[in-house]
Write the structure tokens for this entry.
Amino acid sequence: MFMDNLAYNHDSNILVANELKLNGKKNPDQILKYSLMYNYLENKDFIKPKSDFLLLFIGGNEVQYDLTSEIEKEIKYCENKGRHKLITDEILQTAESLCQKVSPGWKWQTLICHT
């Protein structure tokens, strides 16, 4: 997995990951991989415990995800592919906490209009 952009602000205690998707789709295990990365950064003391985490998928078209359904699909995908390291209780808890914090999908035109 490659991140297009990852930033952390110690003062605000927030980690932001931007995934730029011009004509692409979200990878079938991307939320779980970002949850794994978040837990790794927290365990290595790179980010403070319980930091806020904002995961943005920015693309050419506005896409609305039902994150609970997306995570369920990702779990099934990982089970079928034998990627059990992505479906531990710790990672799933992080992924579920993302579901409560995510804003609607953005498209490029929205960002351009605000600059």
